Amino acid sequence: MPTDLVLHGERFWISPYVYSCFVALREKGLPFDVAIVSLDQHEQKTPEYRKRTVTGKVPALQHGDFWLAESSAIIEYLEDAFAPPASRRVLPADPRARARARQIMSWLRSDILALREERSTTTMFYDRAEKPLSEAGQAAADKLLHVAELVVSDGKATMFGDFTVADADLAFALHRLILNGNEVSPKVRKFAEAVWARPSVQGFVAHERPPYVPY
After folding, report:
1. How many domains does the chain have?
2. Most exposed residue of 40, 59, 193, 198, measured as fewest CB within 10 angstroms of its CB?
3. What digits encode the pLDDT tens for the residues 27-79?
4. pTM of the prediction?
């Protein structure tokens, strides 16, 4: 097993993208260290960090002398570099299920922007949202819940049989609503809360956080 993996993440432990990579590493059983990049101090913009990561984004994975940024790329790399049977899968084995998982992960990163703004991750891990959702925010929430209703089955804690990072990502998005008291159907809530209780997820959720500094 490798001992030279480092996940470079932000110091407030609120990034959904750091979360995805953290869960993937934990689920694959890979030992890794965490290095903090202080976004509020613009450490991600230093010439050294930008040169190593190419895109200058957080999170970044360091594997020996190889650096990689962008959470989706990191998860794909981990799946390829530490493939079964040595490490468990974090994406479905079936091509169609794997494509669907990638679709959901990509969509969560590129859509529902109003919800991500109005129910930001600070409202999940620091102070709860004080304002109701705007019309645009509610439309984004409705879109998220519609997708969840389509892909989550009654009584199931996963979408594709075995747990995947797509489950973790969807549960994270749903908790933007759940933690802020927004309505979620019993079926979808049960799925999201089952994922939230998973040890790999709780390792991120329950991590100690310093006082928040806006950036």
Report:
1. 2
2. 40
3. 999 999 999 998 888 889 899 999 999 999 999 999 999 999 999 999 999 99
4. 0.95
Helix (H) or strand (E) holding 33: strand 33-37
Query: What is the tens place of the pLDDT at every residue in 76-98?
Result: 999 999 999 999 999 999 999 99
CATH number at residue 182: 1.20.1050.10
Structure tokens at 143: 């879109």
Alpha-carbon distances, residue 181 vs 101, 144, 195 (angstroms): 27, 15, 18
* Domain identity same for 189 and 132: yes
- Which parts of the chain fold into alpha helices (H)? 16-27, 47-53, 71-81, 95-110, 113-118, 122-125, 135-151, 165-178, 186-196, 199-205
Shared domain for 123 and 43, answered yes or no, is: no
Residue 214 lies in a domain: no
